[in-house]
Design a protein that fits this description.
The protein is of the alpha+beta class. It has two domains: 107 residues, Rossmann fold (3-Layer(aba) Sandwich), CATH 3.40.50.2300; 93 residues, Arc Repressor Mutant, subunit A (Orthogonal Bundle), CATH 1.10.10.10. The chain has eight helices and ten strands. The strands form three sheets. It has a four-stranded antiparallel beta sheet, with helices on one face. Helix 3 packs across helix 7, helix 6 crosses helix 7 and helix 6 packs across helix 8. The longest helix has 18 residues. It starts with a helix and ends with a strand. It comes from Bailinhaonella thermotolerans. InterPro entries: CheY-like_superfamily, OmpR/PhoB-type_DNA-bd, Sig_transdc_resp-reg_receiver, WalR-like, WH-like_DNA-bd_sf. One of its GO terms (biological process) is regulation of DNA-templated transcription. One of its GO terms (cellular component) is protein-DNA complex. It holds the Pfam family Trans_reg_C.
Amino acid sequence: MVRTLLRAEGHTTLGVLDGETALKTVRSSPVDLLILDINMPGLDGLNLLLNIRSSGNMTPVIFLTAKTEPSHQRLGLDLGGDDYVTKPFDPALLAARVRSLLRRSRLTPRPSVLTVEDLVIDVDARTVTAAGSPVTLSPLEFELLVALANNAGKAVRRQDLLRSVWGTQGSAKSLTEHVRRLRGKLDAAGSTGLISTINGVGYKLG
């Protein structure tokens, strides 16, 4: 019903059936707006949003859910949701809220290039240069670097990086190994010492 409504409004839509697939889709294919249910199989809507926001992705999010309790509404908005619509819903009102969020988001476009000292990350092209030299990264290394760059100069907790990059599939050992590889590639390209280990917390870029 929702996809039919949005298509009638002229939008292109993509539907997925579970939170893990939604997270992979958001990472691989930038979208203009997300409509999430809290009761999603696997990774629920709240944890999905937490993963999305912790990576620095500020794509507008509307919760459309049967969870009507004020506590759920507050949590959804506090985690970074932009709107919260409960079922049953008025289709015309949902369409109006989608239009409103899209208008606002287009007034504040997301930066597609992140720069930290002599490191340049083109998020859309998925390219990285360090001290003027191109750096070849694996998909996970790239996502890890973007998560750190979106919080440049700040310590990012290990658990936040795991949620942002791996979802529910990561491990502390995998994170440590990917940071080691990423640090080695940046150092080899000439951007030495950019990634710092913050004992008891996580890592910092810049």
